[in-house]
Design brief:
With 398 residues, the protein is of the alpha+beta class. The chain folds into two domains: 106 residues, no CATH class; 281 residues, 3-Layer(aba) Sandwich (Rossmann fold), CATH 3.40.50.150. The chain is 40% helix and 26% strand. The strands form three sheets. A seven-stranded antiparallel beta sheet has the order 4-3-2-1-5-6-7, with helices on one face. It has a seven-stranded mixed beta sheet with strand order 12-11-10-13-14-16-15, sandwiched between helices. The protein has a two-stranded antiparallel sheet with strand order 8-9. Strand 2 and strand 3 form a beta hairpin. Helix 1 packs antiparallel against helix 2. It starts with a helix and ends in a 6-residue tail after the last helix. The relative contact order is 0.08.
Length: 398
């Protein structure tokens, strides 16, 4: 290969190295063919921690992404033609070089996603239900999160939990498809993440089924659950998941620059006002979507009164149930005021858990001051000071 083509090849490889360094968690493999006359010599590159292990001509070389251009161009200098396929999740870059030229072509795998998802959906049922998170394909995940036994069977006492996590993914799938349009990667923040089971399930479905690149950041105040989540991510080789120990009441303000505008903020069974801090984080950072499963509605219950309903809410059980409805109703109103199209659905049977409301918000518009003032008026009517209003009141200098 002549020097001109080699120089151009090296320039292409340098660009590839920068990309590899930034997106190393999505790297799948590098495979190549080096041709000289009628002889062909294969090359294979795999990830080894943060390094690349290259097997070529009977030898193994381990190098950093920055060293890759020099090594590959040195190899290429002895051959007439080189073809390299750099594979990441959802994309293949093909580099070809010979004595005439060096070129790179990109093939996005968008057209394969629907077929992949369709094929995934065609296997496996339990109790006559078609599952998205399927035994036989998601065994590693299901075992790590405790749904599946070592023998490959769903544990009898975990079938209800299995149904819950699978239905959660089913409800979010349309939103995930919408968020992934025209995007190379989705950034997802899990506030008060706990043991992160649903985040691990979402990560699996995005990466392994929908073939969408994603980065998860989980935040929780408990060192124990953060440590547990990190260990599970390591077992599953989910290098794109990060877990931070911190209080979302302060950390999400102090560390704003850590994550640029998220695509999705989730808050699943965060206790009482922790849900409100998570929603405020999503609103303040203009997250493209917000999903919450609220829990433990205590704030409004301890504050509100409403004279026309005095004879009803004198019964504690009725006052508590109405507080739940009012709290989540006002949360939905506030999301709508900040431009989100909102739906609220029961995502599991109330027989499984009374805390079964799923709030979904997809940003479709801009801030509406009139709607926000209606939220404030509602809270004033109830005689309540609500955390989500206090956390959002200065966002648009209201």
């Amino acid at each position: 290969m002549d020097q001109k083509s080699l120089n151009k090849l090296k320039l292409i490889l340098q660009g590839l190295a920068f990309r590899l360094k930034d997106e190393i968690e999505y790297f799948k493999e590098l495979e190549g063919q080096f041709k000289s006359g009628t002889k062909t010599f294969p090359l294979a590159g795999t990830l080894d921690g943060s390094m690349i292990k290259i097997n070529f001509e009977g030898r193994t070389i381990t190098c950093s992404p920055e060293e890759l251009p020099e090594i590959l161009s040195d190899f290429a200098g002895k051959f007439e033609k080189v073809t390299l396929n750099y594979k990441t999740r959802g994309e293949v870059l093909t580099i070809e070089a010979d004595s005439k030229n060096a070129t790179m072509k990109t093939k996005r795998l968008e057209e394969e996603k629907e077929e992949i998802i369709k094929g995934h959906a065609e296997s496996g049922t339990i109790l006559n239900r078609e599952y998205l998170i399927k035994p036989g394909r998601a065994d590693d995940l299901l075992k790590v999160i405790g749904i599946m036994a070592d023998n490959g069977k769903i544990k009898n006492d975990m079938i209800r939990k299995y149904n819950q996590i699978d239905h959660f993914v089913e409800l979010l799938e349309p939103m995930l498809k919408e968020l992934s349009k025209g995007r190379n990667e989705l950034k997802i923040v899990d506030c008060a993440c706990g043991k992160s089971y649903l985040s691990f399930v979402l990560n699996y479905y995005l990466k392994e089924v929908m073939k969408i690149n994603c980065k998860f950041t989980g935040i929780d105040i408990s060192e124990g659950v953060v440590k547990s989540s990190r260990e599970m991510a390591e077992k599953l080789n989910y290098r794109n998941m990060e877990f931070i120990c911190g209080d979302i009441r302060t950390l999400l303000y102090e560390d704003e620059g850590r994550i640029s505008r998220p695509d999705l903020v989730i808050s699943l069974h965060a206790c009482d006002v922790a849900t409100d801090y998570a929603l405020a984080y999503g609103i303040r950072n203009r997250s493209r979507a917000i999903v919450a499963v609220p829990c433990c509605h205590r704030e409004l219950l301890s504050q509100y009164s409403y004279e026309p309903f005095d004879e009803i809410i004198k019964h504690g059980v009725f006052k508590a149930r109405l507080a739940d409805v009012l709290t989540d109703g006002i949360r939905c109103m506030i999301l709508e005021a900040f431009g989100y199209s909102v739906s609220a659905v029961e995502y599991v049977s109330p027989l499984d858990t009374p805390k079964n409301l799923l709030i979904r918000g997809l940003m479709t518009g801009d801030f509406n001051k009139g709607k926000y003032e209606a939220c404030r008026k509602m809270a004033k009517t109830l005689g309540a000071e609500l955390t989500l209003l206090k956390e959002t009141v200065n966002i648009h200098n209201i």
